[in-house]
């Protein structure tokens, strides 16, 4: 994956971020060695960002779209307050199985529910509002995820969308369905009076969104 900042700056940021514990380190190594598309791994910097957001927000309900191997779910679960719970959505059983194994080892299996199947179908089955939503799933459906979930943010809830700078392809001539979807979503969020947002140049672009007052 090509990140937004220079490779040496990205490496510097990682070296000066608190390193992952042994469990996350082993999960990252297995993901890199055994799973398809290892570039989807959340990694140290974004994992710590998610953990710190959970620490600060103290959410009772977290929704994640795109479990992959479970790195981000584990990062967030580490900072969940008492009674907090994560619902995470994954379409690939092989990915979900890796996540289940590491969640069990971490003692977090009872605080994280993995829903296997298309995320939009899972969203329809889940009731109520969410205090934190992390979207890192198929990019073509990003606009649909945003439309479905912005109204379901709690009063002080936060939505976190990954890959919103898409390795810079949002400003070049790339006409792929993924690029078109992310570009359309970025324009939508920027002009949405129902939302307040900031785009961060973390890894491949991370957008934070809250509902406008």
Structure notes:
41% of the residues lie in helices and 21% in strands. The chain has helices at residues 7-15, 22-34, 43-57, 71-77, 93-105, 119-125, 142-149, 177-191, and strands spanning 61-65, 85-90, 112-116, 130-135, 153-162, 195-200, 206-211. A seven-stranded mixed sheet has the order 3-2-1-4-5-7-6, with helices on both faces. Strand 2 (85-90), helix 5 and strand 3 form a beta-alpha-beta unit. It is globular. With 213 residues, it is an alpha/beta fold. Helix 3 packs parallel to helix 4 (71-77). It starts with 6 loop residues before the first helix and ends with a strand. It is built from eight helices and seven strands. It has a single domain, classed as Vaccinia Virus protein VP39 (Rossmann fold, 3-Layer(aba) Sandwich).
Secondary-structure map with pairings?
Layout: H1 7-15, H2 22-34, H3 43-57, E1 61-65, H4 71-77, E2 85-90, H5 93-105, E3 112-116, H6 119-125, E4 130-135, H7 142-149, E5 153-162, H8 177-191, E6 195-200, E7 206-211
Parallel strand pairs: 1-2, 1-4, 2-3, 4-5
Antiparallel strand pairs: 5-7, 6-7
Short description:
The chain is of the alpha/beta class. It has helices at residues 7-15, 22-34, 43-57, 71-77, 93-105, 119-125, 142-149, 177-191; strands spanning 61-65, 85-90, 112-116, 130-135, 153-162, 195-200, 206-211. Helix 3 (43-57) packs parallel to helix 4.
């Amino acid at each position: 994956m090509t990140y937004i900042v220079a490779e040496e700056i990205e490496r510097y940021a990682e070296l000066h971020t608190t390193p992952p514990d042994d469990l996350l380190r082993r999960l990252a190594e297995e993901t890199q060695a055994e799973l398809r598309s290892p570039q989807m791994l959340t990694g140290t910097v974004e994992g710590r960002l998610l953990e710190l957001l959970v620490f600060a927000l103290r959410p009772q309900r977290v929704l994640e779209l795109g479990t992959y191997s479970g790195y981000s779910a584990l990062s967030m679960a580490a900072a969940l307050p008492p009674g907090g719970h994560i619902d995470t959505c994954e379409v690939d059983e092989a990915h979900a199985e890796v996540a289940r194994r590491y969640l069990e080892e971490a003692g977090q299996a009872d605080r994280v529910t993995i829903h296997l199947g298309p995320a939009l179908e899972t969203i329809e089955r889940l009731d109520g509002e969410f205090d934190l939503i992390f979207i890192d799933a198929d990019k073509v459906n990003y606009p649909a995820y945003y439309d479905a979930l912005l109204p379901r943010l709690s009063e002080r809830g936060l939505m976190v969308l990954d890959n919103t700078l898409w390795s810079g392809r949002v400003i070049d001539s790339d006409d792929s369905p993924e690029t078109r979807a992310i570009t359309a979503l970025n324009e939508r969020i920027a002009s949405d009076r129902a939302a307040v947002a900031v785009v961060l140049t973390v890894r491949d672009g991370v957008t934070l969104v809250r509902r406008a007052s």
